[in-house]
Fold this protein.
Amino acid sequence: MQLGQNAKTETGNSLLAPFELANQTEAEGFWPPKARLSQLPPEGNWSTWLLMGGRGSGKTRTGAEWVKGMVLGQDWCTLRAVGSIALVGETYADIREVMVDGESGLLAIHASNERPIFVSSRRRLEWQNGAVAQLFSSEDPDGLRGPQFEIAWCDELAKWKNAEATWDTLQLGLRLGNCPRQVVTTTPKAVPLLKRIINDQATVISRMRTVENEAHLAPNFLDRVTKLYGGTSLGRQELDGELIEDREDGLWSRPMLQRCRVRKHPPLQRIIVAVDPPVTGHAHSDACGLVAVGQGEDGQAYILEDRTIGAVSPARWAAAAVALYRRLGADRLVIETNQGGDMAESVLRAVDPDLAIKQVKATRGKWLRAEPVAHLYERGLVHHVGPLPELEDEMCDFGLDGLSRGSSPDRLDALVWGLTELMLKRTGSPRARSI
């Protein structure tokens, strides 16, 4: 079993006598045999155990079981029972309904002979062995002034009202015992406090996805929410527990892209397949950006598909581009030729000599080329048909240096060329189509 750091460093008799659990490893309420690895405390010298998880991933149960184990002195998390605990949530109502009374809360997970008593008038839980957990709301940071604790459980920290003040005041009160510790259970949001905790060297992070807890969720829940949100930034945050961030200097933001998403497009008048080919075809070359965009009969643009492929030979990316062009019945294939020149067109024509190809050359930097396209998004003239997670990641991390996540934004380059041709350089006559 994994032991917390205090199990390694603390010796001697406990100030609080732990409950005697008969046949502990076989007891129905004993946590470790039922827990996933991510639900057991990590080893090492940590001060904060951060559990970032999706909705229904088992975060609350994990936090409650850890508090229970620490209070009862169970040897899977400690060799010494603790007696002073802080329970911190967004509001007192949230703490009561989720952390205390909830289906996975502290009262529900205790056997009847171990269960603490909730004293509502004093906002505290009292165990038979003398341990006390006090409730504190992020709406009242000053309520944490004065009390002191050995451990704390902080729930849904990303939603806290006065997050920084509440957290800092808690840290000053977490000063009892040989190894004060805290568990944070939250669905992640890119708030400053959460990023600060992640960057703290004393933080250990466990990640939990909703799908991992499927056995304890309502039938068909995952199918329904996956169909609605799978692949979207909201789904990755709320179901996969990912921290989704935007750049402060970015041209695109995730809320903007969320607003522009549609489930289907209207009849299309024109379709462009845009290609941003790699310079070479070796294993270390860039990916081949491959994006299809269409203009609806409403005059607006619809991003149909992102079929970007990794570092492959010219023959392979050309075959992929032509296959997309044919399948969609595209009007034109736009290809950047700054690096490859006429060679890129030759590779494509070797696959299909009848392609309608337009070569484009970059005369300005990536940022300057992207700005007019971003303006189309701001005006509500561009829509994404369904989730395009990898493309949207590049868009939201695209910076003034022309890079996204430290690399060439090949998907974004193809998108920019396609939308520039479709919306900013009107050529050709539109035609009605049925797709």
